[in-house]
Amino acid sequence: MNRQLIIGERIMYVNAKETVNCIFTAKIRGSITEQQLKTALAGIQRKHPLLRVVIREDEKGRPYFVSNTQISEIPVQIVERFSDDDWIAASEAEWEYHFDVQKGPLARVLWLRSDDVSELLLVCAHCICDGTSILTLMREMLLLLDHPDTPLEPYESFESVHALIPPHILFDKRKKIKAWLSSHIAGFFLSLKTSKKNIAPGKSYLLHWKMDEESSTILTNLCKQQKTALHATFSVAFLEAMRDLKGDKAKGNVIYPVDIRRYIPEIKNDHLFAFAPIEGLPIIKDNSADFWTKTRKLRNDLAGKIDVMNIHELLLMSEYFHSSVKKIVTYLRSNEGTHDVTLSNMGRLNIPDRYDSFQLETIYSPSACFPWRNPNTLVITNYRGEIDFSFISNESFLTKEDATVLTDRMMELLFEKMGVLEQA
Questions:
Q1: Domain tally for the chain?
Q2: Residues 118 and 235 in one domain
Q3: Whole-angstrom Cα distance, residue 123 to residue 136?
Q4: What angle (nearest 5°) sits at the alpha carbon of residue 38, between those of residues 275 and 150?
Q5: Before 105, cis peptide (omega within 30)?
Q6: What is the pLDDT, as a whole number, of residue 424?
Q7: Lower CB count within 10 Å: N or C terminus of the chain?
Q8: If DSSP codes are grouped into helix, strand and coil, which group holds residue 344?
Q9: Same domain for 141 and 166?
Q10: Residue 251 phi/psi, 5° resolution?
Q11: Which region among 12-16, 252-256, 343-347, 373-377 has the lowest average model confidence (pLDDT)?
């Protein structure tokens, strides 16, 4: 492989010394060995081409994925485990880990180990994987940890974004002209809108909590009764909690990353891929609209926006924005944007709950800390019927104290709608 990073990968790369990292944690009970873990990691590294690449920049500073046949194995760092909360501080530290992108690989595992219980933190540079990708890696790592002889079928990664775009779009001159004009206009406006203020960096943090199985089932069934979706319900609860906290300063908007694999047959569900375009939506600001009306409107609006997405045109157009990447990153670093949160609901995790050689106690929702002015991110998963939440932000944008008030209020609103007065 020797291909330029596509625009989504390029933004997550940021630069050679500041990749955005994604962390996914599994808690296991039982005895495993370092060699078992290394064997499992070797298996997934053989399957996935992006686990065997380095990043090199050309003379213009454009980064490329380059295959390295002599790349090192995925490293494992073992740290003594002291408590059930160690993984949170460890995740926060791993956000700041600097991958040697010129040497690779762009993944590692931190093993918090005690005599009987461990957390395995799978850490990947976000430029090689999205949420679906790191879920695949976790599932395959646990599978090979349990049954190391299980075969995983290697695949060839695409060599250019052009391989993902149908010829009738790729060679359409009008679309190319439109993309060229759009990129230059966007670059001009990004220059105008980028704030010159220097924001003092703050400490990034992770808040984590779970909803028990009974409450998770009640909420899921309630959403079905109300003809709405869980992601919309979480969104409205969060935005209303933000309004309670911030008043008129709340934006009332949410951003969703969209998994586009279903539109690109070349990218299978178990392939690594890191381009997830976003859609932003507002909540109904009419106070006369009730909670469930707002969720249905949000659900329908998002479905409508995704339905009219032309993913192949989006891929084509995005390639004309490489010259503006530095402006995009500078804009994201300095501007709060028009949203209160980026929300990713990954749904029920496709990970088995039974293994022969160890017990998988739980999976914690992935986390990634973006170096943007507005880093508010809420990631939600469901494993074994329990809904799991990870909220990530930065003290310079939203204090941890305020974030705790915010997320507590969000859950309070959800339990009010469920008719539950107190969380179990």
A1: 2
A2: no
A3: 13
A4: 80
A5: yes
A6: 41
A7: C
A8: strand
A9: no
A10: -80, -35
A11: 12-16
- Give the number of other CB atoms < 10 A from CB of residue 247: 8
Among residues of the chain, what percentage have pLDDT more than 90? 79
- DSSP E strands in 216-261: the ranges are 253-257
Q: Which two tokens stand for residue 236?
A: 């409205």
pLDDT tens profile 321-335: 888 888 899 889 989
Which CATH number belongs to the domain containing residue 55 in this structure?
A: 3.30.559.10
CA–CA dist 248, 311 (Å, integer): 35
Q: Which domain holds residue 32?
A: 2-146
Specify the range with the lowest mean pLDDT, choosing from 38-47, 89-98, 194-203: 194-203
Tokens describing residue 226: 């109300």
How far apart CA 284 and CA 294 sit, in angstroms, is 6
Give the strand pairing for 107-113 and 117-125: antiparallel
- The span from the CA of 375 to the CA of 92, in Å, is 14
HSE-up of 106 (CA within 13 Å, CB side)?
A: 33
336 CB-side CA count, 13 A: 13
The Cβ of residue 77 has, within 10 Å, a number of other Cβ atoms equal to 14
> How many angstroms separate the CA atoms of 89 and 110, rounded?
12
Give the range among 5-19, 195-209, 248-262, 406-420 with minimum mean pLDDT.
195-209
pTM greater than 0.90: yes
Spatial contact of 131 and 346, defined as CB atoms under 8 Å apart: yes
> Which residues lie across from 65 on neighbouring strands?
3, 55
CA-atom Rg of the chain in angstroms: 22
| Residue 126: CB atoms within 10 Å | 25
DSSP letter, residue 116:
S
Structure-block tokens of residue 161: 């974004």
Q: Is 413 inside any structural domain?
A: yes
Confidence of residue 422 (pLDDT cuts 50, 70, 90): very low
Same domain as 91, residue 19: yes
- Tell me how crowded residue 192 is: count the other CB atoms within 10 A of its CB: 6
**Helix, strand, coil % (nearest 5) of the chain?**
40, 20, 35
Positive or negative torsion for Cα 393, 395, 396, 401: positive
Structural contact between residues 385 and 370, judged by C-beta atoms closer than 8 angstroms: no
pLDDT at 423: 44
